[in-house]
Description:
By secondary structure, this protein is mostly helical. It has 5 helices and no strands. The longest helix has 52 residues, at 119-170.
Amino acid sequence: ALTNVTTVGYFSAAQRIVTALQLLWTAVSQALYPYFCRSFESNAKKAGTNLRKVVYLVGAVTLAGAIATALIAPRIVSILFGAKYVSALPVLQVLIFVVCASSVNSLLGLQGLLAMKLEHEYLMAILTGIIANVVLATLAIKVWGSVGLAWAMIAVEVIVSFRELRVLRRKEIF
């Protein structure tokens, strides 16, 4: 076993909060997708400029939200789970930044690569993320426990984002 049931429970508590926030972003992302599909078909240069603006805006807003959440995490955990889950705090304070990283990743991948019909490049970015996730998560859990796993999850999102960004730059979109 990579860890124990207690550690999994604390990670799970933090993950529930992060997942709820990611679901909010999913709705926004789904609303943007048809727009970017049409935009890339009609004027790829302008669509790229708009994508860049949205990435910067969403990146800044979700980063600010992650910082705020990390700062008030003690209160959030106390209200939602009670004092017995205080050990979930360090996990939440790191894991919350996955919202920022995955939002940017989603924009670059879905609104960028898939909207441009670059399915193969998107698939390769996702495959890179899967491999990185297996390697980093396994190592991080063994060495640093649940907080390490949270850092590994952020690293995977960043790795995938850089792979997507590299394709968009090569296509002169971003």
